[in-house]
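Lecture 7, part 2: worked example. A protein chain together with guanosine-5'-diphosphate.
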Amino acid sequence: MRERLSVAAYKDGILEGNRFVLSRAITLIESNLERDAVLSRALIAEILPHTGNSLRIGITGVPGVGKSTFIESFGLMLAALGKKIAILAIDPSSQLSRGSILGDKTRMEALAHHPHAYIRPSAAGKSLGGVARKTREAMLLCEAAGFDTIIIETVGVGQSETLVKNMVDFFLLLMLAGAGDELQGIKRGIMEMADAIAINKADADNLQKAKAAASQYKSALHLFPPTPSGWIPKVKTCSAIEQTGIKDIWKMITEFEQHTQIKGFFQHNRQEQNLSWLHETISEQLEQNFYNNPYIKQELKQKEKLVAQGLKDPITMAQELIKGYQKKVVYNNK
Ligand code: GDP
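Predicted complex, written out as structure tokens:
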């Protein structure tokens, strides 16, 4: 990374809506270096009073369902309405390699060049939790930079959608007609998280199938317990390529926003999310401190060998490591 700026310079640049500074600030919060972590924590604390003024939308679906095509159509429509859109992604595969499932920067070409849009590819990281934290902080930086609509994209496999659900106001699940739920890797849990399902590729020969699938999903959703806000999840059809049904989805999202604002649920949901953020941060910091401790680094290897060879049991070894760590931490702080 190039020279760091001062916290004040990052903050001023971001509040002025300077994208160059915004990008550098996101790179800073994505860094795993301890000195960058100190700087980025200070920056987040500084910009926090300037955040929260956006609508946060999560979008998930299996690879190939049309997420990037949809986000491009949806984003261009919003940009035409004068909205400022930031698009972030959580890619579970980025733990192994940089963004291999969600692809690279060549996606959403038209939107990427729009002056009202900002696209940032997924952060890489050792743990999905770490990637999620970076995305949440990037979202806050984007809000402080004046983006009023944030889209967080993820793939509908694994646990990344739970993490996204935990940081957005509205969660949209994209699906296909006739692919079978198993094929789409969609577990009941993901459907339960969705505030709406959109059956994409409702065009040409696929239109009737999409409509039929929509009515099936509508009946299926009725069997789920009611959501805390009283919002009944909607099912829509759309074609990201032909750009049909996209405006209707936006209309529905604004209705959702009104509905949850009136009932106080919108704020309540964000408060709950702040609590999860607190607890996730504690867990992540504790874990990092533990594994970065020189004593643990040394001891862990030996104990791993003993456990792997079946000479010692994992629980006893874990307890010994934790006790040893606690002693070191207390001793070092004296
Ligand atoms: P992602 O992996 O979920 O991001 O999916 P993509 O947006 O990359 O789309 C996967 C493929 O589906 C591409 O070949 C798209 O052109 C195609 N596709 C996306 N949306 C539509 C749609 O609404 N209708 C049709 N017919 N094809 C679509």
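Residues 202 and 239 are 5 Å apart (CA to CA). The chain has a mean pLDDT of 89. Keep this in mind for problem set question 3.
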